[in-house]
């Protein structure tokens, strides 16, 4: 049996000594953006449902979508879609056992972050 006297050592790593890695942060953001996309799809479905229901209901939904808050949600959702897509491509690359060394994994992580912003800006420029 192990010695019951553990001294002054911590039992597990604590936030004060743990340094988050880029791969862990990007993985957490993949999960967050996936859930955010679900919420934005619900907003768009509500808008489509309102369009199919009545003119008054559609005017309310359309006002919400075209408000500054609605536009912020839609632009954030666009970024989330690009981030989630690029993160999925990165995981497909890793599933082929390519790029698992630390340098390449960090390069892929930064590629996902920077690429999501670049593709979001390009998409906004093309659509507007």
What does this structure look like?
This protein has a single domain (22-127), classed as 3 helical TM bundles of succinate and fumarate reductases, CATH 1.20.1300.10. 77% of the residues lie in helices and 0% in strands. It contains 4 helices and no strands. It has helices at residues 22-53, 55-66, 68-95, 102-127. Helix 1 (22-53) runs antiparallel to helix 2, helix 1 crosses helix 3 and helix 3 runs antiparallel to helix 4 (102-127). The protein is elongated, with a radius of gyration of 21 Å. The termini are far apart. The model has no long low-confidence stretch (mean pLDDT 90).
Quaternary organisation? single chain
Q: Which term fits the overall shape?
A: elongated
Distance between the termini: 68 Å
Strand content: under 5%
List the helices and strands and how they pair.
Blueprint: H1 22-53, H2 55-66, H3 68-95, H4 102-127
Helix pairs in contact: 1-2, 1-3, 2-3, 3-4
Characterize this entry briefly.
The protein is an all-alpha fold.
Task: Please give a handful of descriptors for the protein shown.
mainly alpha, elongated, 3 helical TM bundles of succinate and fumarate reductases, single chain, 4 helices, 128 residues, 77% helix
